[in-house]
Amino acid sequence: MAAKKDINPIIKQVLELGPTVAFFLIYLRLKEKTFEIAGAEYSGFIVATLVFIPILLAAMGVLWALTGKLSRMQIFTAFMVIFFGGLTAWFNDERFFKMKTTLVYGVFAVLLGIGLMRGRSYLAYVLGDVLPMRDEGWMILTRRLCGAFTGLAVANELVWRNMSTDLWVKIETFGFPILLMGFIMLQFGLLQAHMIDPDQDQG
């Protein structure tokens, strides 16, 4: 097993967010074009999706080489991108890649929900080492995030089924991540009372 290593947080953010931004920029460049590949015509969206997959894998490879680890969430998301990106190209149907976002958020909601039904917080299992918080706080945060992921899954279905591809790409790239990050930051403020102070505990 590779040893875990710390890297510059800016580099880490670029490797984690860069592929999504690259997809957005490539889509903007190709969205009005069509490409003929092996006798079939593909839209700029589908070609951008195909280009996005190796960019994502390359970024994850560099991140793993630099840090010695990848989170379960990163691995799962990469698998979903590859799987649904492949279906998108195979069937020449952009709906598969759009549905990927619904399933990613939906799976996260289901996993958190299963933990809640068992009286456990799977978030604490994943983030407990970096975010010390009492069990009660983890359960509250898990319930709220489960609801947030469910809401994002439903929102994605509404967006891609009723709005243009161009608008969906913008919301997928910027809207959903900003909403989720803002929601999480707000929760940490509300849950400050449940945080554990390591120095206080040691005293």
From TrEMBL:
It is a multi-pass membrane protein. It is found in: Cell inner membrane. The chain crosses the membrane at residues 14-30, 42-67, 73-91, 103-125, 137-155, 167-190. GO terms for cellular component: plasma membrane. The keyword Cell inner membrane applies. The keyword Membrane applies. InterPro entries: YciB. It comes from the Bacteria. Keywords: Cell inner membrane, Cell membrane, Membrane, Transmembrane, Transmembrane helix. Plays a role in cell envelope biogenesis, maintenance of cell envelope integrity and membrane homeostasis. Belongs to the YciB family. This is Inner membrane-spanning protein YciB. It comes from Ruegeria pomeroyi.
